[in-house]
Amino acid sequence: MFMVSVRRLLRREEMVLILTKSDMELVLTMKENIGVLEQAFKEQASGNVDMPLRPTIVLDEFHGRASFMPAYVGGDMKALGIKVISAFQDNPTKHNLPFIQGTILLLDAKNGSLLAILDGGHVTAMRTAAASGVATKYMARQDAEQVGIFGAGIQGETHLLAMCEVRKISKALVFDVSKQKADAFSEKMKKVVGAEISVANSEREVIKDSDIIVTVTTSRQPVFKGEWLESGCHINGVGSHHGPGIREVDETTVKRSLVVVDSKEACLKEAGDLIDPIAEGVISQDHIYAELGEVVAGKKKGRMKDDDITFFKSVGLALEDVSTALRTYDLAQKHGVGKNVAI
Questions:
Q1: Residue 100 in contact with residue 130, Cβ under 8 Å?
Q2: CB neighbours of 223 closer than 8 A, spacing ≥ 6?
Q3: Which pLDDT does position 5 carry in this prediction?
Q4: HSE-up of 60 (CA within 13 Å, CB side)?
Q5: Residue 118 β-bridge partners
Q6: How close are the terminal C-alpha atoms of the chain, in Å?
Q7: pLDDT tens readout for residues 161-175
Q8: Annotated catalytic residue, options 21, 31, 83, 94
Q9: Residues 46 and 147 both lie in one domain
Q10: What is the residue range of 90's domain?
């Protein structure tokens, strides 16, 4: 009798929705994603998020790493899932694969069953920029209209979209170590946003007159000098964050800024931009003014006065992935997008 019951259990098939990048592009907009993360960060500030620090496996022999990011966002959202994401630097040249690859498993929070499998690369590109969009909404000056972007990859593209959603951006400057990539970025994004887009000839040119600065590079060293920053600017620091000795912004930038992070615990473990100045005694941990959820929830202000320099440091959180995945799943169900498969 026991064996019969096991066979019946094993024969049971569940329908799971498969969502590719193309599927998600049909239903998930940047505006939608920013709204979702605004709610998710509020839940974090209310204590309704269970999110262990991501364990990471480093594979030096293959020049790569794999991270596992689980989270549950409770409250009014009820998003449960995990993202598996890898970064292998030899992929583009040796294996004809993206540098970063990812997959998200979305579970039903009521019973733990698998609802969907989503392309993690697209979710990562969207939710990372959306988080910066939330930060910019609360931290940048209301009259901010010029954005400077370091890095002409997919994150540069999605971040420009996010900045245009939360501020009336009239001009964007992009800089990349590859002039060819910067030129391609400019030509592509001119067709997508209404802002004037130019390729900067130097790092300093990006900083000059920019009200919002975005760093989305893989640099291991600061990409600009903190003394170049003009009063009143806002910075979204998004790129390099693998630990001590790796940073996109220097200690001068951090010291001059009102610092808000996505997660203090995660940033103190992963963000070289903050770990290094703390270790050097330039700042203390108390220099971290707030987590983004506290700002969104109204517990702290994102900007004290117009001439403040504000800095949002993002290392990327699983709460962003699962909340984005759940909204994408709901939209896909509504519009009949994706492929249901039996597992």
A1: no
A2: 150, 203, 215, 217, 248, 249
A3: 55
A4: 0
A5: 19, 104
A6: 25
A7: 999 999 999 999 999
A8: 83
A9: no
A10: 15-123+319-342
